[in-house]
Specification:
Elements: E1 14-17, H1 23-34, E2 38-43, H2 47-61, E3 67-71, H3 77-91, E4 96-99, H4 114-142, E5 146-151, H5 164-183, E6 188-195, H6 206-213, H7 224-236, E7 243-247
Parallel strand pairs: 1-2, 1-4, 2-3, 4-5, 5-6, 6-7
């Protein structure tokens, strides 16, 4: 008697990308849509930008229902806890979370206070942990496997004292990567991706950004496309967990006395 192996599932995988309305989150969402993922586009205030990202994801995937927007304030625990169930209710299942959104406000050792630390820890550390917790529970309920990718920062391997509370919150998230990878295996993989200087800001002129971008052993730091491709790799490589991929042209190997935006 012959037997036939079951056909592989054709159901698209679903990924929640936080802060996907613009900048790096948008690039990640677009690449994943192009790769066949359903994309839950999270935003806090950027509704119009998030809607545009969702429409562009739909166009890239060739499916009108492959992307949708979801609002949540990542500094509010109730809002965070409601986010993944809302995505699951819309798409039927969730397979991955990319924690891209970050609070990034300047403080220093001299200006540090509890309020600044609390704001950064809530959005940058607490929210990613809660979303990993929620994804793990969702996967257990449907006997599935999944992955969380946490966006970190090369400055954790090349410390300077600028953006004090932001850096502490990302250092805590990097430690949580290891702890979550141990606690939630084998059902959930947890991987960090740490970009270098990738996008400019109001603090840098275009010329200064280009000059700083070249300051690495490879003569260039990361591009949004580099980071998005690394996130996609982390999502699909089933042997990666509890580690961080540095995507920075080697900038973490150099010594910088200040944050890029203040150099």
């Amino acid at each position: 008697m012959s037997s036939t192996a079951p056909a592989p599932s054709t159901t698209p995988r679903t990924v929640l990308v936080t802060g996907a309305g613009k900048r790096l989150g948008r690039e990640i969402a677009l690449l994943l849509a192009r790769s066949g993922w359903n994309v839950a586009v999270h935003h806090r205030h950027s509704q119009a930008e998030a809607q545009q990202t969702a429409e562009d994801c739909n166009a890239l995937s060739g499916r009108a229902d492959s992307a949708a927007t979801f609002q949540a304030d990542l500094a509010d625990e109730h809002s965070v806890r409601a986010l993944l169930p809302a995505v699951a209710a819309h798409f039927g299942q969730v397979d991955a979370v990319v924690n891209n959104a970050s609070t990034f406000e300047h403080d220093s050792a001299q200006t540090f206070g509890f309020a600044a630390l609390d704001a950064h820890l809530r959005a940058n550390t607490g929210a990613p942990i809660l979303l990993a917790q929620a994804l793990h529970a969702h996967l257990e309920a449907r006997d599935g496997e999944g992955v969380v990718v946490n966006l970190l920062d090369q400055k954790l391997w090349n410390l300077n004292p600028d953006f004090f509370s932001y850096t502490l919150s990302k250092a805590a998230l990097e430690t949580a990567n290891t702890m979550l990878a141990l606690a939630l295996a084998p059902r959930l993989r947890v991987v960090g991706v740490a970009p270098g200087l990738t996008l400019t800001s109001h603090l840098l002129s275009d010329d200064r950004f280009a000059e700083l971008h070249r300051q690495s052993p490879l003569g260039r730091s990361s591009t949004p496309q580099d980071v998005a491709a690394t996130v996609a790799f982390a999502l699909t490589n089933g042997s990666l967990t509890g580690t961080t991929l540095l995507v920075d042209g080697g900038q973490h190997l150099m010594r910088f006395e200040r944050d890029f935006s203040l150099m």
